[in-house]
Amino acid sequence: MTSDPERSRKVISHYLNKNHVVALCTSGNINGEPDLWCANCFYLFDPQAMGLIMMSQPHTRHCQLALSSPQVAGTIAAQTKNVALIQGVQFRGQLQLLAGEDAADAKSRYVQRFPAARLLSAPLWLLRLDEIKMTDNKLGFGKKFYWQREYD
Fold first, then answer.
1. Cβ distance 110 to 51 under 8 Å?
2. Which of 39, 43, 51, 52 has the fewest CB atoms within 10 Å, counting from its CB?
3. What's the chain look like in SS3?
4. Domain CATH code at residue 51
5. Which among 110, 141, 139, 112 has a CA at the least distance from the CA of 127?
6. Residues 107-124 pLDDT 10s
7. 17-28 as b/e, with b when 16 or more CB fall inside 10 Å?
8. pTM to 2 decimal places
């Protein structure tokens, strides 16, 4: 595991920026019943926020769960059959619905990456990444990078 936090952040950010689909895992309560659900979502990486901007309707199961409990986890992984080329991240974070100026700014950037989103009216969400572990076998079998958000 790499102990240099700046190098880890740089490597992880580069990986997140070049990909665009996240497997998002949510849990919470819907109608008073505990539930969990996973969904695949397109995302835009926001390096300043160290987060993922996503577009999704609030009535979807994963968003309903996130509204009841914003703590989420997930993965972003490349598809390969060659073990030497495996790359991917596991993460945990907080999912929040964006509003106002934050939502307008996020939408502007999101439609630059995904022009078809211009035609959609779904709201945008920010998945604030709190902890990330990245595996990058391209740099050596089992090579890991780790990043964690620092809190004041």
1. no
2. 39
3. CCCCHHHHHHHHHHHHHHCCEEEEEEEEEECCEEEEEEEEEEEEEECCCCEEEEECCCCCHHHHHHHHCCEEEEEEECCCCCHHHCEEEEEEEEEEECCHHHHHHHHHHHHHHCHHHHHCCCCEEEEEEEEEEEEEHHHCCCCEEEEECCCC
4. 2.30.110.10
5. 110
6. 999 999 999 999 999 999
7. eebeebebbbbb
8. 0.94
- Which tokens in the block code for residue 95? 């999912």
Q: Pull the structure tokens for residue 79.
A: 């598809």
CA nearest to 7, candidates 152, 139, 118: 139
Whether the per-residue pLDDT at 2 is higher than 60: the answer is no
Strand pairing class (71-77; 51-55) = unpaired
Residue 59 pLDDT:
95
Domains held by the chain: number:
1
First-to-final CA distance of the chain: 25
Of 94, 78, 96, which is closest to residue 86 (Cα–Cα)?
A: 78
Rg (CA), the chain: 16
Q: What is the DSSP letter of 151?
A: -
**Residues 22-78 pLDDT 10s:** 999 999 999 899 999 999 999 999 999 999 999 999 999 999 999 999 999 999 998
Q: For residues 77 and 88, is the Cβ–Cβ distance under 8 A?
A: yes
